[in-house]
């Protein structure tokens, strides 16, 4: 797992757990990434971080990057599906959490996206849920005129993943060297 994390520019350690059988399509399959990043955030000042991309993951975030172009002139796959991802970021006890992003919700003919943020103590969690619709029916290709709807949905996904957790001590509340 450490080599996978290093590939994501994360210095740390962790583990990957698989739940379910990826070859059994009749049941849900999920993976859990638990990792500790040793040098990911500079706690010496007020700052903001987005939820890190899971190491080696193909997530909602990467799926949304498939609509980077402003237009698409060819038919494309757009079957129905549900993706549900929850991320947790735990801050050290001595680091104030100043703000978390607002929840986000968007729906159109291509699907529905929600990002729900919560905080309990020093743990900030966000649940990203993306329901994709088969605009023209399952196993039927979408047409170029369907692309703007999918792109609008995925732009909301990008915005949801760009939400920043604001953290750090305010000016005048200097950290002790042992807290850096």
Widest beta sheet: strand line-up:
4-8-7-6
Name the helicity range.
10-25%
- N- and C-termini, Cα separation: 26 Å
Radius of gyration, rounded? 19 Å
How many β-strand stretches? 9
Principal-axes geometry comes out as: globular
Quote the beta fraction: 25-35%
Helix/strand-derived class? alpha+beta
Mean pLDDT: 84
Low-confidence stretches: none
- What is the H-and-E element order? HEEEHEEEEEHE
Keywords:
180 residues; alpha+beta; four-stranded antiparallel β-sheet; three-stranded antiparallel β-sheet; 3 helices; 14% helix
What does this structure look like?
- With 180 residues, the protein is an alpha+beta fold.
- Helix content is 14%, strand content 33%.
- The longest helix has 15 residues, at 147-161.
Q: Which secondary structure elements does this structure contain, and how are they paired or packed?
A:
Layout: H1 2-7, E1 12-19, E2 30-37, E3 47-49, H2 60-64, E4 81-90, E5 97-99, E6 104-108, E7 111-120, E8 123-132, H3 147-161, E9 165-167
Antiparallel strand pairs: 1-2, 3-9, 4-8, 5-9, 6-7, 7-8
């Amino acid at each position: 797992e450490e080599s996978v994390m290093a590939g994501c520019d994360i210095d740390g350690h962790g583990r990957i757990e698989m739940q379910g059988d990826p070859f059994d399509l009749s049941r849900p399959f999920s993976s859990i990434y638990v990792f500790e990043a040793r040098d990911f955030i500079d706690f010496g000042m007020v700052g903001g971080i987005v939820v890190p991309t899971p190491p080696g993951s193909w997530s909602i975030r990467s799926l949304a990057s498939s609509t980077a172009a402003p237009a698409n002139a060819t038919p494309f796959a757009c079957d129905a599906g549900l993706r549900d991802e929850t991320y947790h970021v735990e801050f050290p006890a001595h680091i104030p959490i100043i703000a978390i992003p607002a929840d986000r919700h968007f729906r159109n003919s291509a699907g529905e996206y929600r990002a729900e943020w919560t905080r309990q103590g020093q743990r900030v969690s966000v649940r990203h849920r993306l329901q994709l619709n088969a605009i023209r029916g399952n196993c039927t290709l979408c047409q170029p005129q369907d692309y703007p709807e999918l792109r609008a949905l995925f732009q909301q996904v990008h915005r949801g993943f760009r939400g920043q957790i604001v953290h750090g001590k305010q000016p005048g509340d200097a950290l002790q060297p042992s807290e850096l």
